[in-house]
Structure formats: structure tokens, C-alpha cells
Amino acid sequence: MLHIDHLRIGVVGKTILDGLDLDVAAGEVHVIMGPNGAGKTTLANVLAGRDGYDVSGRVLFDGVDLLALTPEERAAAGLFLAFQHPIEIPGVGNMYFLRTAVNAVRAARGFEEISARDFLTLAKEHMARLGMDPAFLSRSVNDGFSGGEKKRNEILQMSLLEPRLAILDETDSGLDIDALRAVADGIQRLRTPDRSFLIITHHRRLLDDIRPDQVHVLSRGRVVRSGDQRLASELEAHGYGPTLAGTSA
Amino acid sequence: MTAVALPKASEEAWKYTPVAEIEAARRAAVPAADESVTRTTLDDLAGDLGCPRLVFVNGRASRDLSDRVPAGVRIGAVPSAATLMIAADVDVETPLHIVHVSVPRDLRSLSHPRSLVHAAPGSHVAVVETYCGSPGPALTEASTEIRVGSAARVEYVRIQVEPDDAIHIGRTRVEQGEASAVHLTSVTSGGDIARQQIDVRLPGSDARTDLDGLYLPARQQRHDTVVRVDHAASRGTTTQRFKGVVDDHARGSFSGHVIVRPGTTGNDAQQANHNLLLSPTAEADTRPWLEIFADEVRCTHGATVGRLDGDALFYLRSRGIPLSQSRDLLVSGFTAEILDTISLPTAREWLAHGVARRSPERRR
């Protein structure tokens, strides 16, 4: 589904990713770990279409050249990024934002628009499962939300937009136990044989529930080690030091 | 008669107004002719806000299009002015909609819409005043006076949506008695040159004035807002909150003048002006001007000129919302703070649609 071939990313003359290769097959869950500054968030942003980077290499998403698409085209094609720091947009109602996004993606995928009433019902169903108060629909997008509320709102968007590939950028950071549980459940519910996940995290905790197919360690712009879930436990016990010392990077 | 005396270009309050162009238009102008419009045209231009309308076409009252006013309101007999007299202690529950339609011919057509709202002590009224027109070279010199008796409350919404080739020179004068309250919201989207001056005097103590405004120049439009608030008595509270959204080659300017007179105490004056530039060739000017002659006073002011937030734009687009729609969403978020202060829902909704229609491709 996602095929990354020798991806290089630079910003203002500084190399951030230096020839990254990664393959994520349909239905798989991949985890990217790595020390701060390794380029994890940059990778997520570039995959979602953020501009301002010098990008070379090749990224195929279901066989399509992902890097040639605008951010909205990527969303329509089925890519979703849960932001590490969701953006607050005062004055734009959350309900209106969510419905506009869902209808934009539906239109691009050739489906009919969903009415305001049907959408309200749908959104409330999803919110109930995430333990979100429907009052969050009538507030401005992320405006004044707590850290956990913002992350729940990201998972809400993910479940409403039904992506093929969801990239979660430290969605589990800074969450209390309840919020972490809601996020993990939200991800688990969305797992299907043809939906893939790329999860960027610092913590093993989330992975206990999710049971990823592969864990990769990103350092100095490359994948320096890959393994199964045991790698995450090892990293949590011993830190990145031994892993990184064992590589030639 | 002339509603507004034009000054020399050097005068401070006219710093951002293209006075020479207005003078040239005045020299070329002829008095606007007797015209009429259909109810459909009226609804199209000014919206049907679901409240009684007083309609003026080219400065003259149109009996056919005007409705009866509710009890407690007396309208003046002069056919060239909208005069609303609210009796003491009357709470007029129905908002009133004054509509001025300009229907210009080929020549620059000059009209002088005039309104007077007189709220006697203890009364309450809400008035929406709309300036609109059919395309053509109109020159509108508008004047509104709002006199507010002690402990009276007035909500006033001023909407200026004249066509792009109109020139609009407006002046709103507010005078407030003791413990009175005024909430004024001004939205300007029309006119080639549109100037709007708001003068507020507080000769009565303990009065409150909230001034909110939005100007939305696009294309080649020039919008100039000049506010003057005069704290002539003690313990007055005034807020000014004006926002500009400037697109294409347009120019938006704001001057906010606050005077606190000597010998007064406990006045509180706040002013904020925030501007959003949507194109590299758009221009916004902002100028606070504080003259504080009293010691015990609280005065704050803040002004910004910025562009659309790139992070927010990327966030919306990453959810599948196309670029132009994402920009419109952010603009409506920026303007919502002002529009949401309007208590009449029909006016608020009509204006929110108007903001969405502000760019030419959306007008079609």
C-alpha cells in the first residue's frame, strides 16, 4: 500500500531524512520510534503534503505517486495524519469543519454528500464510542480543548474520514490513562484487512493493545533497525543508546 | 444640503480617504432621480430580515415598500429622512430595518440618506440600517444620528453593501445619556470608495458603548473606517473591536480616536483592530490615536496585520478540504467574532453568507 523508496528530505539546507526506505502492506501496523530530532514528524508531514521541504525519492500510495498530490488529494485518496499538535481554529465550528471535511472527501471519492442531520447522528455515534461529549461539536475546532480532548478529536476525524492509511504522530503523548485507552480503542476499532497504520510513538504502552506487525527505529534520517513488538520493549528498557551504538550511523 | 462637509486632505481624520476622487465625483454628480424598485429586488439587495422595513430609494421614502412600525415607535413626517422616535420606557420587541437603496443612472447620482433614532429615557430598540443599490455610479452621503436617553438601550447594525462602483461617505453620530448602553455593529463590503465615520459622545456618566465592525474590501475597493469616542463624563466604558479582511489590490484602513476629557474619572476605553491580508498586493493601515487628559483611566489598544495561518490551512487541507474552501473557512472564522455579536439571527446569517460571497467568483 505504501512504498517509500530512498526518501530524502531537507529543510533550509539541512538534511532531515537521508534515503529512507519503508514498505507498509495493506492491513499492517507499523511503528516508528526514535530519538527526538530523528525526523519522525517531518516524515509524517511530508507524507501528508506539507510544503516547505526539499523532497526527493519516491513514495507510492496504492501505486500512485503520492508526492505529486496536494494535501486534499492525498486525503481523498485515503491518507490521514493525526497531528502531534492539532491546530486550534477559533471561529470555525467543529461540527461544520467535520462535515465539510467528510463531504469534501466523499465528493472526491464519488459519493453523495451527507446531510447535516444524518451527519449529526453519525458524529454522535462516533463520539459516544470515543467517550467524547457531543458538546465538542458546537465548539470551535480544538479551541481551548485540553491535550487529551484534542487527541480524541483527531481520532474522531480519523474514524469519520475512513482512511486507507492512518499516520498517527505521537497521538499517545501526554495522555492520561482514560484518554490513552480511548485512543487505543479508537485505533483497534478501525483495524481492517485493507487499512494500514503508521504509528509514531515514544511509548511501548500503546503497542501493548495494538500489537504492531513491525517496529522501526529511525535515527539520523534512516531506519537503523527493524523488528517486531519485542523491539519496542527492548527500547523502553534500555533506551536508544545500545541500538544506535550498534549501528554504523 | 450636504450631509458631510469634506475637509482638506491634510486633516488627520481623512488621512486614508481619497478626498480628491470624492471631490471630482461630487463635481460630476447630479441629484439622484425619483426611482422605484420591486420587492424582489429589495429582498435581493437588502435581504428579508423578517422585521418591519422602512424603505428609501435615492433618499426618498417609498410608501409601497415600507411596513407599519410597531407600537411605541413614532416615525417622522419628513419624507427624505428616517426618523424613529421611541417613547420613554418602551421596549420595542421587534427590530426595525431601515433600507436605503440607491438606483443611479448613467451620471454620478447623488443622494443623501438621513436617519434619526431617538430613544427616550428607559427605552430599548434594535435597528438595522442597510445601504444597498443597483450597479452604477452612485454617490451616497449618508448620515445617521442616534440619541440615547438616560438608561436607554440601543442595538444598531449598519450594513453597507452598495455595488462596486458606488462611492459611499457615511457618518454615524451617537450621543448617550447617563447609564445608557449602545451596541453598534458595522459591516462594510460595498463601494469603490467607502468611508464610514462613527462619532460617539458620552456626555452622560456610567454609559456603555460597544462598537464592533468588519470591513471586507476586495478587488480595487478602498474602505476607510474612522472612529471617534469622546469620554466627556465619568465612568464610561467603551470598546472598539474592528476587523478587516483585505483581498486583491484593495485597501482597508482604520483610525480609532479616543478622547478622555479632563476632570473625568473611572473611564475605561478599549480598542482592538485586527487585519487579515489575503493577497500580497492588499494593504491595511491601522492607527490608534489616544488623547487622555484624565489621570484615573484605563485605556488599552492593540492592532495587528497578518496573513492566513499556514498551519491552519494545512490542517484543513489535510482533511480533504480544497484550498479555496479552506481559505474561506479561515476567513469566516476570523469574521465570526464580530458577526456573532449581532443579536438578530436573520441579520447575522444574511451577513455570514455575504462574507462568503465577497470574492467575485463566489458572487456568480
How is the topology of this model organized?
The complex is a heterodimer of chains A (249) and B (364).
Chain A lengths: L1 E10 L2 E11 L4 E5 L6 H9 L5 E8 L2 E2 L5 H7 L1 E4 L6 E5 H15 L7 H15 L9 E2 L5 H15 L3 E5 L7 H14 L5 E5 L4 H6 L3 E6 L2 E6 L1 H10 L2 H5 L4
Parallel strand pairs in A: 3-10, 3-11, 6-9, 9-10
Antiparallel strand pairs in A: 1-2, 1-4, 4-5, 7-8, 11-12
Helix pairs in contact in A: 2-3, 4-5, 5-6
Chain B lengths: L18 H10 L1 E2 L7 H8 L6 E5 L2 E2 L11 E3 L5 E6 L9 E7 L6 E3 L2 E6 L4 E10 L4 E11 L4 E8 L6 E10 L4 E8 L4 E10 L5 E8 L6 E10 L5 E10 L4 E10 L6 E11 L5 E10 L4 E11 L2 H8 L5 H17 L5 H12 L3 H4 L1
Parallel strand pairs in B: 1-7, 2-6, 5-8, 6-9, 7-10, 8-10, 9-11, 10-12, 11-13, 12-14, 13-15, 14-16, 15-17, 16-18, 17-19, 18-20, 19-21
Antiparallel strand pairs in B: 2-3, 4-5
Helix pairs in contact in B: 3-4, 4-5
What are its keywords?
heterodimer; A: 249 residues; alpha/beta; Rossmann fold; six-stranded mixed beta sheet; four-stranded antiparallel beta sheet; 12 strands; B: 364 residues; eleven-stranded mixed beta sheet; ten-stranded mixed beta sheet; 6 helices; globular; disordered C terminus
What is the strand content of chain A? 25-35%
Number of domains of chain B: 1
The tally of helices of chain B reads: 6
Mean pLDDT of chain A equals 91
Tell me the CATH architecture of chain A: 3-Layer(aba) Sandwich
What does this structure look like?
The complex is a heterodimer of chains A (249) and B (364). Chain A has 249 residues and is α/β, with parallel strands linked by helices. Chain A has one domain (2-245): Rossmann fold. Chain A is 39% helix and 28% strand. Chain A has helices at residues 40-48, 71-77, 94-108, 116-130, 147-161, 177-190, 205-210, 229-238, 241-245; strands spanning 2-11, 14-24, 29-33, 54-61, 64-65, 79-82, 89-93, 140-141, 165-169, 196-200, 214-219, 222-227. In chain A, the strands form 3 sheets. In chain A, strands 6-9-10-3-11-12 form a 6-stranded mixed sheet, sandwiched between helices. In chain A, β4 (54-61) and β5 (64-65) form a beta hairpin. In chain A, α2 crosses α3, α4 crosses α5 (147-161) and α5 (147-161) packs parallel to α6 (177-190). The longest helix of chain A has 15 residues, at 94-108. The mean pLDDT of chain A is 91. Chain B has 364 residues and is α/β, with parallel strands linked by helices. Chain B has one domain. Helix content of chain B is 16%, strand content 44%. Chain B contains 6 helices and 21 strands. Chain B has helices at residues 19-28, 39-46, 310-317, 323-339, 345-356, 360-363, and strands at residues 30-31, 53-57, 60-61, 73-75, 81-86, 96-102, 109-111, 114-119, 124-133, 138-148, 153-160, 167-176, 181-188, 193-202, 208-215, 222-231, 237-246, 251-260, 267-277, 283-292, 297-307. In chain B, strands 1, 4, 5, 7, 8, 10, 12, 14, 16, 18 and 20 form an 11-stranded mixed sheet that branches. In chain B, β4 and β5 (81-86) form a beta hairpin. Classes of the chains: A alpha/beta (249), B alpha/beta (364). Chain A binds chain B through residues 48-51, 70-72, 74-76, 80-81, 83, 86-87, 89-92, 97, 100-101, 104-105, 108, 140, 157, 161, and chain B through 309, 311-312, 314-323, 325-326, 329-330, 332-337.
